[in-house]
Every structure is written in C-alpha cells, then in structure tokens.
Design a protein that fits this description.
The chain contains 13 helices and twelve strands. With 390 residues, the protein is of the alpha/beta class. It starts with a helix and ends with a helix. The structure holds pyridoxal-5'-phosphate (PLP).
Length: 390
C-alpha cells in the first residue's frame, strides 16, 4: 500500500467504525462490564487496545493511534494534550536522577526550557550540541548519558541534522534516540526507518491542520513502546475523543494539503532568495540551508514552513512590515490552512552552542492554502513597507 492510501485507510477497522466510514465518537470515563469474566479479561488486556477505562482510550482513540503508528512505522502511539506534553512525557519516561541527556541546540524553545527548568531539578543534566556536529557527537557522550534528542529541521533556523548517522553513533553507546518530527509529519520523514526509537510530533500542526485542536503524539518502536505507553498512562496523559476525532479527520487530507503548502512555499522562497532586501534564506530544500544534503537524502519533500533573514533593519521597519500584512497573520504556530508570520530578533537565549552570524531580523512564515497570487502580493507589499522605513 502506498502511503497516501494508508492515510485514508488507517484506523478504519470495522470494530471502530461500526459500518460507517469514520470511527464512532465514543465519549467515556467508565467502561461497564457484563460479567466477572469480561471484567477480568479487560483487566488482563488493558495494555492492548480494548475498552478498560477512559484514560486508556476508547475506539475513537484506538482508530487514531492505529493510523499514526502505521504512519510513523512504530509499534504504538501515545496521545498527549499538546506537543509540549508529548516531548516532556516521552523524555520523563526514560530518564532518572543522575542521568545525562544530549539536546540539540536548535530545539523548540519550550523543549529547551523543560530541560533547563524541570529536568535540572530532577537531577538530570542536559548538554546542548550543535545540530551540525556530525561524528563529534561521540565526544559528548558520558558514562551516564542515556538519551539523544534530535529535531530536524531545527526550530526557526531550519538546520537539517544527519539523523541516520547521529542515530548510528548513539546506538553504539546504547542511547535511546528521540526526535521532534513535527516538521517531517510522518509523511515527509519517517525517523523510525532510520533507527530512531521514538518519533514525537505536535499533531497541533499538520496532522490536525486546521488550527483548532492541541495535541501531541509519540510513536515508539517495539523495544520502547511498553515503557512509553505505561508511563504515559501513569502520568495521566490523555486527550478527549472529540479531539482525537478531529485529528483523524485532519490526517485524511494531510497529503493533499502538504502538496499545496510545499508548492506555494517554494514559489515564495524562490522570489525571496532573489529579493534585494533578503540577506539569507533558510528553507531546507535550498542549498543555502545547513544540512540541505541530509534533507535531500532523507525527506520526501518540504512544506509551508521556512525562514529568511532581512538585511539590517530597525524596529519601525519591522513593525511596518508586520502590522500591514493582510493574509500572513501574526501568530506563534504553523501547520494550519492559513498563512502566518513571526519575527525573531535575537538568538541569545535560544542558542547556547551554535553561532548565528546574521544581524538582520529573521522572519519565519508558514505559507497557507490561500491563492498564491494574493500571498505574493501581500509579502512583496510588506517588504516595500520595510524598505520605506529604513
Ligand atoms: C508547536 C511545536 C511544538 C509544541 O506543540 P504544542 O502542541 O504547541 O504544544 C513542539 N515542537 C515543534 C517543532 C513545534 O513547532
């Protein structure tokens, strides 16, 4: 089965759909049993996808979990109330006091804050590493190192890590390898195929795809699924069946949405690369992006998210650019049907071991599904406002 077909068929077992196209929306805390024998059986099988208690999920959740485990090629999928919860709970499931972890310097900002503000108090030490470190990752592995955490492309600056090579080295030292695969979304990148143990996503982004549900997912391989599943249960992590239903609905159209996001973003990125006000483009499909060769080798394609650095500007110019945007709305997310824009002016707090050689403001855009002509006009008008205030 090709993967676009898998997106359509995933999780549609008769037991979940009861004869219609979509799974039943089953809202439940309590599951009631008809007999002692049935209750015993459900208790024994509670780690499998059987009705036991609301927190273990209902048929609606099982349908989504099946589809996502299939998408990411794992043994099972845990659901969390946000991407941030998926990241923190996946890490917490595999570390103990005295352990050391390796965290990519270009991690999503709250992932960094979780290490610096939560893990540190539990006696778990974090070392940040350059996303482009390559084989030198081995020099950072200590006797108490247990986990390598990857994110590719990196948040905001888009460096693409060599996931297979870093994973190979980590495995030589028996580390668990996890990745934030929100950009790769399971369709455009399949980390478990490259030896990664746990692939995490903010389903909030492309899976949900409509900016109306928060959700995180973590898909684990055979060796790590039992521990991830049990810890997620013990930490009380669950999502509402209504949200699971929305995520499954989003998943069905993810491939066609991504194709359009990619196409429109490539048009805009090509225009920006040649624009006199743009100092540097950070789009993984362009050779100017660090790790572009890894992207071409390991990913099936790009999507609507990329960044670019403007030539030196001032606050008034940036404000004029942003305040006047018509379709690119200001907001800290991406992956929905709509275009978004944000600016990052300083990387001082966000990066501790990676150099950022550019001086101008970095603009990150998520290119939505609006007509490309409207988006071009909007962005070019924004750059003209920027220039007018220089
Ligand atoms: C948005 C995002 C998250 C967090 O997801 P939430 O659902 O907002 O908690 C994690 N990682 C990356 C790369 C993200 O972009």
């Amino acid at each position: 089965m090709k993967q676009n077909t898998q997106l359509i068929t995933g999780g549609r077992k008769k037991d979940y759909t009861q004869g219609v196209v979509n799974p039943v929306l089953q809202r439940a805390s309590t599951v009631v049993f008809d007999s002692v024998a049935q209750m015993k059986e459900a208790t024994q099988k509670r780690a499998e996808q059987t009705l036991f208690y609301g927190r273990r999920g209902t048929k609606t959740h099982f349908a989504l979990q099946d589809a996502l485990a299939e998408l990411e090629l794992g043994a099972g999928c845990a659901l969390y109330p946000s991407g941030a919860a998926a990241i923190s709970n996946a890490i917490l499931s595999f570390v103990k006091s005295g352990d050391h972890i390796l965290m990519v310097d270009t991690a999503y900002e709250p992932t960094r804050d979780f290490c610096d503000k939560i893990l540190v108090n539990l006696g778990v030490e974090t070392t940040y590493y350059d996303p482009m470190i390559g084989d030198d990752i081995a020099t950072l592995i200590e006797p108490n190192t247990v986990l390598l955490f990857l994110e590719a492309p990196g948040s905001i600056t888009m460096e693409v890590q060599d996931v297979p090579r870093l994973t190979q080295i980590a495995k030589q030292h028996d580390l668990i390898v996890m990745i934030d695969n929100t950009y790769g979304n399971g369709l455009q990148f399949k980390p478990l195929q490259h030896g990664v143990d746990i692939s995490i996503q903010a389903a909030t982004k492309y899976i949900v795809g409509h900016s109306d549900v928060m959700m995180g997912i973590a898909v684990a391989n055979d060796a790590h699924w039992p521990q991830l599943r049990e810890n997620s249960y013990l930490m009380g992590q669950c999502v509402s069946p209504d949200d699971a239903y929305s995520a499954l609905r989003g998943l069905r159209t993810m491939a066609v949405r991504l194709a359009q996001h990619e196409k429109s973003a490539m048009v805009l990125a090509n225009l920006l690369e040649q624009h006199p006000l743009v100092d540097h483009l950070r789009h993984p499909a362009f050779s100017s992006c660090p790790g572009h060769e890894h992207f071409m080798r390991d990913f099936n394609g790009s999507n609507g998210l990329f960044s670019f650095v403007l030539k030196d500007g001032n606050q008034a110019a940036i404000t004029a650019l942003l305040d006047g945007m018509k379709y690119f709305k200001m907001g800290y997310s991406w992956g929905g049907f709509e275009s978004l824009i944000t600016v990052t002016s300083s990387f001082k707090r966000l990066r501790t071991v990676t150099d950022w050689p550019y001086h101008g403001p970095l603009i990150r855009v998520h290119v939505g599904l609006e007509d490309i002509d409207d988006l071009i006009e909007d962005l070019m008008a924004g750059l003209a406002r920027f220039q007018a205030h220089l």
